[in-house]
Design goal:
heterodimer, A: Rossmann fold, OB fold (Dihydrolipoamide Acetyltransferase, E2P), six-stranded mixed β-sheet, 20 strands, 23% helix, disordered N terminus, B: mainly alpha, MetI-like fold
Chain lengths: 384, 290
């Protein structure tokens, strides 16, 4: 659409890269034993350590109240540390006030200044840094072009749509060449289609600007779409850090497995397992490579299998050799358009399981007795 | 969507609902006002001498100047007390906010007489205020019977008219904007000056205008606490109508004060003051109730 009409080539020629000031493209953000205690029952953030690499897109993911937003506010300086250190490129900023940290921030409700025009909003951080008038005009135009919002300079925020407002906020947050960009659920207020479009936009801008992005969300899909790495938060601590694929394919804990995507969970209890594991009379092969390194596995483990790794057959003898299987009854079939989800009553207790089958496969109906099977290398043994 | 529901709910006939209020206003406001105007320019026949008299009698302009000065001081005092007070009200919990609101509204709820006599008791010779000054060695400080005493009492009485529009205006300001400004490189003071202050200006303008115009026409407090030697415009008006029976002169004076007040309101409206402040009030109340 407007991309072709842009003068700037889709190369590294971005406002930040071409800005004469600080050439630091990506900033390393190092959190060590970061703690925030409001004096409630448990600390909001409990001694977390996390290193965000220069130029990385790191997402802090977690349910509400897990401490992800508090952590972002600690990095921004909007909250004061109870304990621990925060360092940007090795220099401690833990006690610096927010206006001296040189970080860009994007809020869920945009936080545009309603009494200033689009151009004045975007120019605000440059004015605060005493940038010259001509330079301000040049960079404002450039960055509005980058977020694909040219020609709206004179509008007030209330005259723009939600998506446009967030683009202005994004422009304002990157125009001053910040050490890193912090994004606090910036797409939460937008409808689904717009959110998808802006996700792509944010990813593109991250690529072009090349600076470190720290993104907070509770939406696992959004986190998977955007991130280089995800830090999954759970009640004040970090449950697991890794690429989206690592977190999805190789979860360490049941919390991680359940938070990202659907999963079938077979709780092994405190019983030990070796080359095989037993669950309600079933004996399953265990691939040692699928055992999580998490210390909790030895005391309480569970087997996790993704629905897309489960196959269903009517004839138990059709299960291939070496596969793990369990008897099941079909409880329901959900047609999802591109696939069907078969809901299964599994085992003696009649637990609910899920298998994903081809959308054209309408062979199963409610009440059928079937056998569900999967490859041992596709399961994962996690700490429960 | 809102416009369609609005037009559906407000057919033309609903304007009839305004008729009783407009009729009442016409009878008790417009008719007497018109009479005053006619008398001021038509006694004994058409003349502007009563208006000219205001500028040449040697009293009116002095009193008008004194009144304006008093009103300015009262407005400034009310603003300096009211702005931090209203700001505090937006920052505390709902219970403490209620308490603060009650405190500021007490002058509204007490009778005019009780309020003014209380100030007389406090400010009179031998009263607590003078005793305090005496204790510190400043002997003869008596505020009763002077413009200073009038100013003190008026500031207290008019404080709600400053605090309420300010509160509704400040309460509508999104605190996230201050965080955003801080993140973009502003110190707390600069963030206040460049973001919070401009956004509160609507409430400030309407508070200033309300207090100033009300101060111009204050009668009871200056009459009770002030002295005839230092009278304000309302006392002068009362004197001309009730003692001198100079209705033409009083009418001219009244019209002059009215014109000054209307000019001020019109000027303030150019800043979006009164009207937008009321708008902010209604939206912030909606937010509260949600």
């Amino acid at each position: 659409m407007t991309i072709s009409s842009k003068e700037a080539p889709a190369g590294p020629a971005t406002p930040v890269a071409s800005a004469p000031a600080s050439g630091r493209q990506g900033t390393q953000i190092r959190l060590a034993d970061v703690t925030k205690d409001y004096g409630l029952a448990a600390p909001a953030v409990d001694a977390i350590s996390l290193t965000i690499e220069p130029g990385e897109f790191m997402t802090l993911l977690g349910p509400s109240g897990s401490g992800k937003t508090t952590t972002l506010n600690l990095i921004a300086g909007f909250e004061t540390l109870t304990a621990g250190t925060i360092a940007l490129n090795g220099s401690d900023v833990g006690t610096l006030p927010p206006h001296k940290r040189n970080l860009g921030m994007l809020f869920q409700n945009y936080a545009l200044f309603p009494h200033l025009t689009v151009a004045q909003n975007v120019a605000y951080p440059l004015r605060e840094r005493k940038v010259g008038k001509a330079e301000i005009a040049r960079r404002v135009a450039e960055v509005l072009d980058l977020v694909q919002l040219p020609g709206r300079d004179g509008n007030y925020p209330s005259q723009l749509s939600g998506g446009q407002q967030q683009r202005v906020a994004l422009a304002r947050a990157i125009v001053f060449n910040p050490a890193a960009l912090l994004l606090d659920e910036p797409l939460g207020a937008l409808d689904r289609n717009l959110r998808g479009a802006l996700q792509m936009e944010i990813r593109r801008i991250h690529r072009e600007v090349g600076s470190t992005f720290v993104f907070v969300t509770h939406d696992q899909e959004e986190a998977m779409n955007l991130s280089d790495r995800i830090a999954l938060f759970n009640s004040g601590h970090i449950e697991q850090v890794g690429t989206p694929e690592e977190l999805y394919r190789r979860p360490d804990t049941l919390f991680t497995a359940r938070f990202l995507g659907d999963s079938n969970v077979f709780d092994l209890g405190s019983g030990s397992f070796g080359s095989t594991a037993s669950w309600e009379g079933n004996s399953w092969a265990v691939d040692p490579a699928t055992i999580s390194g998490h210390s909790g596995v030895s005391s309480h483990a569970a087997i996790v299998v993704r629905p897309e790794d489960v196959r269903i057959v009517s004839d138990p003898t059709a299960v291939p050799a070496g596969a793990n299987s369990v008897g099941a009854a079909v409880r329901d079939v959900e047609y999802m358009g591109s696939y069907r989800t078969v809901m299964l009553d599994v085992g003696q207790a009649g637990r609910l399981g899920r298998a994903r089958v081809d959308a054209l496969d309408s062979a199963f109906s409610i009440g059928d007795r079937v056998t569900a099977w999967w490859r041992p290398e596709r399961q994962r043994i996690v700490a429960a | 969507m809102t416009t369609t529901t609005r037009t559906r709910r407000a057919p033309r006939a609903s304007w009839l609902l305004l008729v009783p209020a407009l009729a009442l206003l016409a009878v008790i406001l417009l008719v007497p006002l018109g009479q005053s105007l006619l008398r001021s320019i038509g006694t004994p026949q058409f003349t502007l001498e009563h208006y000219a008299g205001l500028f040449t009698d040697g009293v009116t302009m002095t009193v008008l100047g004194r009144t304006a000065l008093t009103a300015v001081i009262v407005t400034i005092v009310a603003f300096l007390l009211g702005y931090p007070y209203a700001y505090l009200m937006t920052r505390v919990g709902p219970r403490l906010r209620g308490v603060l609101l009650v405190i500021v509204l007490i002058p509204f709820w007490t009778s005019v007489m009780a309020r003014n006599y209380a100030w007389i008791v406090l400010l009179q010779r031998g009263g607590p205020v003078q005793s305090v000054f005496e204790f510190f060695g400043a002997g003869d400080v008596v505020f009763q019977g002077s413009v200073v005493g009038v100013t003190i009492a008026m500031s207290q009485v008019l404080l709600p008219f400053m605090v309420l529009p300010l509160f509704s205006s400040l309460g509508g300001i999104d605190r996230k904007l201050l965080l955003a400004a801080r993140g973009l490189g502003s110190s707390p003071l600069v963030a206040f000056w460049k973001i919070y202050w401009p956004l509160s200006r609507g409430g400030v303008v309407s508070g200033l205008i309300l207090v100033f115009t009300l101060s111009l026409g204050f009668y009871v407090t200056p009459a009770l606490l002030g002295s005839p030697q230092q009278s304000l415009i309302a006392q002068l008006l009362a004197q001309r109508t009730t003692q001198l029976l100079d209705f033409a002169g009083a009418g001219a004076l009244g019209i002059l004060v009215l014109v000054i007040t209307l000019a001020l309101v019109a000027w303030a409206n150019r800043f979006g003051g009164t009207i937008s402040a009321i708008g902010v009030a209604s939206t912030s109340q909606q937010k509260e109730s949600r």
